[in-house]
Amino acid sequence: MSKIFYDHLISFTEIEVQIDRVAVNKEEKEEMWHLVDEIIHHKVLGCILDSLSKKDHQAFLEKFHATPHDESLLEYLKEKVSDIEDKIKLELKKLSKSILKEIS
Amino acid sequence: MRTSSDELRNKLKLKNFEVKRKFAKKHPSALAFLKEKGLDLGSIRKHSAKIIGAGALTGTLLLAPPIEIPSLPNPSEVIEKIKLDELVGLSPQEFLVSALNQFLPGKVRPLIRDEEKKLEQLFQSTINISVKGTLEGEHLNTTYGYIGAEQHLRRYPGDTLTAHGSGVILQEGMAPGLGAWGYFASSKTDLTPDLEETEKWYAVVQTLYLPDWEKRLPYLRNWYKYRKVLIIDVENGNAVVASIADSGPAIWTGKNFGGSPEVMYYLGGPRYKKGKVLLFFVDDPENKIPLGPVEYNEINLPEISLFKS
Question: How many CB pairs under 8 A join A and B?
């Protein structure tokens, strides 16, 4: 099982379609999926750290490192930044648009 | 002009590099912390899988549903809860949908072992097919999730879309690449009716995200190849036995499984592109259960007939 606590907020179906259209084999497709996955993690973590106050960074990173799959991390973040879920969703929306613009 | 595969990969690599560079510049202390812990954000899924795997070994229910979500009731409890007058005239399919509505959490999540056991009993008693969440020790990352529409797969070199049927079923088109197990046959003449059915009723599961996929690759690749699964749309009860023939979808699509055009058409009709489903392994050691739609309204099991008028 591999799961990150914000997975349920991601839905990049159009990017998948673009990759499916051109990938010539499974390995290539999975390599591109992984590249997108890495981009997502950096953007989402960046968004979270930008939203949290500096003093909360360490505690959040400790928790994230210990249980990256735990959905209660989102609740923890909401206690610090009430609209964090909306912020992450917006970041993901912007990211999806920007990737699509670059790869289309 | 259409982007080629190399172009797309290079663009993604460039974007990937740029995003990482910006993250490092803006959050150097976070990066240092992660580095100190030996964690690269690009490998966060592997790290997560290790933690969850370790939890499973030690018996810690890391994936247990949050406390506020009650675990699923027993099938017998569900039957007891349904008022008798509501049962009169219910077809097995209506009964199953009604039971699943009461069984399942509204929000898709991995089910715990006990919940899967209860569903196995429910399917056995309504659909009359023996299914398992865990079969021969193997278990998918989730048995409850979203299925998305896939394209036809090339069955042999030179295969064409029109050879896959006619009408609406061809609308999804043909995948440009091959399925995870390559061609189904080396030539058109080698394509047996069984293999034809396998492609027609194929399912896609996220083997690539299994925690031990790379470690046990030769065994798991073989074990999952054309493995039969029962897929049930939880909202309408439509059920189909499919065969695993590809790996995916990407985890960031919000989907957990994929279905061939025929599978999707049967589960929800021509406009069905995404649906909430349960997917269990079919326990069929003698290979007796055919692929394709499961018309369980036609069966008349003693357990079900109790509830029919």
Answer: 176
